Amino acid sequence: MQTTRPALDLSTTIPGTMMDVPLTIHWIFQHAVNNHGAREVVTRLDDGSYFRYTYADFGKRVAQLAHALVELGVKPGDRVASFGWNSHRHLELYYAVPMIGAVLHTVNIRLFPEQVCWVLQHAGDKICFVDGSLVPAVARAMAVRSDVPMEFVVMGPTTTELPGARDYEELLAGQPETFDWPDLDERTAAILCYTSATTGDPKGVMFTHRSTVLHAYAAGLADGLAVTQRDVILPVVPQFHVNAWGVPFLAPMIGAKLVMPGSGMDPASLIDMVDREKVTLALGVPTVWLAVRDELVRRDTTLPTLKALVIGGSAVPPSLYDDLEAKGTRVIHAWGMTEMSPIGTAAAMHSDLEDATPRERRAALLKQGRFSPLVAWKVLDDEGKPVPRDGVTAGALWVRGPAVTGSYYRLDAELPVFEDGWFHTGDVCTIDELGYLQLVDRSKDLVKSGGEWISSVDLENELMGHPAVREAAVIGLPHEKWIERPVAVVALREGQSVDEPGLQAWIGERVAKWQIPDRVVFVDAIPRTGVGKFLKRELRERYKDLLSE
Ligand code: ADP
Fold first, then answer.
1. Best of 337, 339, 446 to mutate for ligand 1, by most ligand atoms within 8 A of CB?
2. Any residues with CB less than 8 A from the CB of 458 and at least 6 apart, and which?
3. Cβ atoms < 10 Å from Cβ of 4
4. pLDDT at 199 over 70
5. Where are the alpha helices (DSSP H) in 338-382?
6. Is 287 a catalytic residue?
7. Atom 24, ligand 1: which residue's CA is nearest?
8. Together in a domain, 159 and 288
9. Same structural domain, 285 and 140
10. Residue 532 or 212, more confident
11. How many angstroms does the Cα of residue 501 sit away from the middle of ligand 1?
12. Residue 1 — pLDDT band, cuts 50, 70, 90?
């Protein structure tokens, strides 16, 4: 890893002979249309029916949309918002908007109305494309402030009137099916995405054409998300948050069939999609797959076509890993963040593990994985010195690379997360000799008990291994003597029971005694962020006096 630049006289370098062709999204688009034209894109619609067309049809509609955008007055550099589920129309926006030089701002539909209003304003969006079923949500956001000028285009049927809104299909109808795409600089902004504010205010990350293309290449490698043209991919990760992990670019680039779940994110709908469309690879956060697993167990069935599941966003609970592997589905654990486009690592098997015991192999594959070739990393201790690469010593993780953001959109404050060309992820981790990253915690979520750190992730994993526990979040709460002590917030599976001492005893058999949570609180459901992660900030607030009562 290079940390200092070599003191060389570079004035004597000479140019190469390669064509100077910018790395823009047009490359992925043209390739999908020309070389994978017959491959399908399928969307599950709100009424449960399925819409399907091919990448060739997609190409024509993207051109029609581009003409419609120009007619609507969208100019290069303008921000265009989308407020929608994963669908073929959202995919069309992913291409048409950046390919005319404008920027697609994908708005997280699960934000509170005030936050939606805030990001629309911060981004300076002029037009918002909204799914028919989401019109009420967007109307609520617009009601927060009346002075945000916005034109609306509604995608698909709606039962709610949005005054002045245009209809997506009417805008496309009759438009030419080809477009004379402009030549763009590869550093042109393409997509804007705000972090979901697990911590602090949402911050905007502006992906470029170049970073988007490079990210897709790196993410698709065999030891990455392992995508082939034969695959049928179901991105349950939303297009409204971190580009659905790059799948909208990766699948067309490779020629894989895409199955878009629309609003059908419940386990029964997802199982139906996998069955019907013969999905081979699906991607999503652990909560989605925990629910799917429970439904499969209830029905006593399996998903035979599903070869692999990419799981990320939060740590994969070992019990989920075991259950899925037992059903014949390989789990690919991945880690990343909005600021990294987002894929940083994926847990493929290293050659040195070929002769390892199944137990050793499982332990490695449960880690967050090995780094993408386009991500450089360093792990530093409190004094800023690199920690040993021993899989034990934890430190703060910094990254750098062509698909890592170097700043936040329209945020001038100097943030300590950017330093010397590196980005501080806010994650605390170890890295072992084979290069597997293991997240210990987010630095904000670590529990500081006395002088010792306790990983909330470790405790959550152990708790979720208990047969009665559906989900568990561990937080650190103020404590008079120890500064902070861990408290577990637990939701039980239907029809199951276990009490506080019972769970403390279970944990006590698995971790050091001083790490056992002081209290276990039972709730019906754990509050979540817009993308399904535990909202620990809210839990810390709700229970802040628990240990002093
Ligand atoms: P935010 O939650 O702030 O919007 P992201 O959705 O981009 O940001 O989430 C990034 C964070 O999610 C990472 O920094 C990390 O803490 C957590 N994360 C992502 N993948 C994993 C994983 N596989 N295991 C544990 N934590 C993860």
1. 337
2. 440, 511, 515
3. 6
4. no
5. 358-365
6. no
7. 315
8. yes
9. yes
10. 212
11. 31
12. low
Mean pLDDT of 22-27: 98
3-state class percentages of the chain: helix first, strand second, coil last, to nearest 5? 30, 25, 45
Q: What is the pTM of this model?
A: 0.90
Write the pLDDT tens digit of every residue in 411-449: 877 788 999 999 999 999 999 999 999 999 888 888 988
Mean pLDDT of 240-255: 97
Q: Token pair of 41, please? A: 């894109």
- Structural domain boundaries, residue 458: 446-548
pLDDT value for 5: 66
**443 CA to centre of ligand 1 in angstroms:** 12
Q: Distance (Å, rounded) from C-alpha 465 to C-alpha 468?
A: 9
Three-state DSSP state, 365: helix
Sign of CA dihedral 528, 534, 536, 542: positive
Place of tokens 């992990």: 245
CA dist 449 and 396 (Å) reads: 19
Please state, rounded to an integer, the average pLDDT across all residues of the chain. 94
14, part of any domain: no
CATH of the domain at 491: 3.30.300.30
CATH number, domain with residue 90: 3.40.50.12780
Query: Residues 319, 232, 130, CA angle at the centre, nearest 5°?
Result: 95
Contacts of 510 (CB under 8 A, 6+ apart): 462, 465
Mean pLDDT of 97-108: 98
Of the pLDDT bands very low, low, confident and very high (cuts 50, 70, 90), residue 393 is very high
Contact predicate 52/42, CB 8 Å? yes
Within 8 A by CB and 6+ apart from 191, the residues are 94, 98, 103, 104, 105, 106, 206, 207, 212, 243
DSSP letter string over 277-331? HT--EEEE-HHHHHHHHHHHHHHT---TT--EEEE-SSPPPHHHHHHHHHTT-EE
Q: Which residues line ligand 1 (CB under 6 A)?
A: 195-196, 198-199, 242, 312-315, 333-338, 342, 368, 425-427, 439, 442, 531, 533
Q: Is residue 297 part of a domain?
A: yes
Per-residue pLDDT tens digits for 220-236: 999 999 999 999 999 99
Helix (H) or strand (E) holding 479: strand 469-479
Residue 131 located in a structural domain: yes
